Amino acid sequence: MPSNLQSRLQQSLGGAYTLERELTGGGMSRVFVAEERALGRTVVVKVLPPDLAAGVNRDRFRREIQLAARLQHPHIVPLLSAGEANGSLWYTMPFIEGESLRERMRLLDKLPKELSHDQLAWLDGHLGLSTSGNNEILFAWLELALANRYDPAVPSIEGLVTSVGRGLLIYPVYKDLMAEGDWGKPIAARLYEKAKGSYHPVVAAGIGRIVNPRN
Question: Could you tell me if 105 and 11 lie in one domain?
Fold first, then answer.
């Protein structure tokens, strides 16, 4: 039987999508498999439920939508559409069969904050975390990888900061890199030099103050 949220979401979306079932994962959001009727394709509809649609959760979910809309990378599942239904934010992405998002996020949340490179390599190799098509998983993984100075994750970090120009989304990445001292600072400087020409001048100046605090 459809949940109350599924019924309300279906009513709000009208005939554009037919919600088929709810998946068992999605981090802070709820995830439904649906048919996009106009194109006859299967998609995922990800929605922030009303009980979480306030304060930091809403802001975080909106940033996730904005970032997903700007990312263009062969290993990142693209955002297809987005909107708001009765106060709940939602967006759609292609449906990909596989392990539930909630199970993957639960695993990342339970991991120790300090891991060896061998442990990180095993996780990355077996779970494909550096190339995850889910933004929540990718962000959680990169945060862990940065904190442990995991070099193989740097290309994914580079992909983010060179393809996303919105300061709100990339300032934290540069700050985390700078916090890693002699490992992270050179990476931050290199990525800034590579990407600053594509940033808005205000964003470039803001990142410049992070990377070169004495200037």
Answer: no
- The Cα–Cα gap between 193 and 107 comes to 35
Domain that holds residue 119: 101-211
Strands 81-85 and 88-94: antiparallel
Q: What is the pLDDT of residues 148-194, one digit of tens each?
A: 999 988 888 888 787 766 666 678 888 889 999 999 999 999 999 99
Q: Are residues 59 and 82 in the same domain?
A: yes
Kindly calculate the radius of gyration of the chain based on its CA atoms and give it in whole angstroms. Answer: 18
Spatial neighbors of 152 by CB under 8 A, at least 6 apart, are 120, 121, 124, 130
From residue 118, alpha-carbon distances to 121, 124, 151, 203 in Å are: 5, 10, 12, 36
Backbone angles phi, psi at 114, to 5 degrees: -115, 120
Span 114-124, mean pLDDT?
Answer: 81
The CATH number of residue 60's host domain is: 3.30.200.20
The total of structural domains in the chain comes to 2
CA 10 to chain centre: 25
Contacts of 128 (CB under 8 A, 6+ apart): none
**Kind plus residue range of the DSSP H or E element containing 11:** helix 4-13
Tokens 């193989």 found at: 152
